[in-house]
Amino acid sequence: MSQAQIEQEVIEVETSGEFERQAVPQSQWKSWKSFLGMYAGEHAAGTEFVIGPLFLTTGVSAFDLIVGLFLGNLLAVLSWRFLTAEIGTKFRYTLYYHLEKICGKRLVTVYNLSNGLLFCFLAGAMITISATAVGIPFNMEMPRLTDTMPNSLTWVVIVLCIGAVISVVAARGYNTVAKAANWMSPIIVLAFVACGIVSLINLEVASFSDFWNIWGEGSEPFPGQIKYTFWHVLLWSWFANAAMHVGMSDLSVFRYAEKPSVGWTTAAGIYIGHYIAWISAALLYAVYLQSPEAQVFLGNGEAPPVAPGPLAYNAIGVFGILAVILAGWTTANPTIYRAGLAFQAVIPKTSTFWVTIIAGTVATIAGLFPAFAMKLLDFVALYGFILAPIGAVIVFEYFFGKRFGIQSFYAEKTGIKFNQAVFWAWLISFAVFYTISVQFDVFLSFLTLPAWISCGILFLIISKFYQKKVST
């Protein structure tokens, strides 16, 4: 590396403080406490107020929901601990810089744009969720499950205001994101527990069998929804965050961890947020389904709306409004932060602050359209399916590359800008398994793992021939 390049990297670190193009130095490593709050805040979040009720609309049974969620979330925690945290603490690069070393600048630019946009759409759903709470004092009309477009000027103004605040917090960097989550997560967790308890009282649950019978043996799905089984729940909950763990996006987070065991902190967020919170939110919706308003929707053959703000407000009042606002906030913050890092890798001369503001602007625009939140189960499955296989390239190179005889960080060492082995491995895996999903109407989460494994194996095989061809 030339002296000019070294000086440039020093300038970048000093101005941004986010170490986008170098390993995080030991002086910046953080203990498990920083991650505990962030993951609890991110996963006990606004989306939980939507996902829990959506499980009820799929007609899931009690066993499939309770046991399926427990095992699926366990697999997610193991993925974070033994894949993402392991590799993140080994190299300490952002996902985008790590991929650039493997894929080359041109190929990773395409990935970064796709990744950043998908994260913006996901963050937009969080902003939508917070808006349903802020809109209650203004008597705002809430979006329905079938809504795609903004339904009022009030909705637009509220979303824009929330998006602006969240974007500024995310743009201030990892320390601010983690600090915000640490402050807010206890309030959110308390709110979910309170919502669950109040809902159990309203449903007159006096025993475990009463609780079990809320779902019982399951039912027919609501109009426009598909029937969920045990395998739907297990695989969906495992891959709900596929882009973050097996897709390696959280390399950008775990590069700050002092050791791989910090990966276990994800369990705090997952079992509080993706277990207790999902079930509590489902109970909120079960209470609402007994209301005359919901019965009118069902009588007309429509699914009653899943608006988190009113559901929480009806259970615990103003505290519910506050909880939904903060829950959307704590998930949107790290999601926009990740999106900003993706865009920063595309336009490295722009500061991290401003690319994160750009990401927040895109997320805010997405938040204006309720479809991202109302179709969250489908969207989360799709974005995980698209992004996860690229993570397999990093995993398979790290664990099997040397044994298979391929050179690690091939693009960096050879100067190539477009690693065709990565491109073809991802494209073939995506095309084959997405076609299977469409042609045979297979639930997309069933195919995420096969696509991930396929991409990793194809990467090793194609790299074996590609690297030999380029070097000759």
TrEMBL record:
InterPro entries tied to this protein: CodB
Q: Which keywords has UniProt assigned to this entry? A: Membrane, Transmembrane, Transmembrane helix
Chain ranges passing through the membrane: 62-83, 116-140, 152-171, 183-208, 228-247, 268-291, 311-332, 353-373, 379-400, 421-440, 446-466
Q: Which Gene3D superfamilies match?
A: Hydantoin permease (1.10.4160.10)
Q: Which residues form a coiled coil?
A: none
Q: Does the keyword Transmembrane helix apply?
A: yes
PANTHER family with a match to the protein in the record: CYTOSINE PERMEASE, CYTOSINE TRANSPORTER CODB
What is this protein's record name? Purine-cytosine permease
The organism named in the record is Autumnicola patrickiae
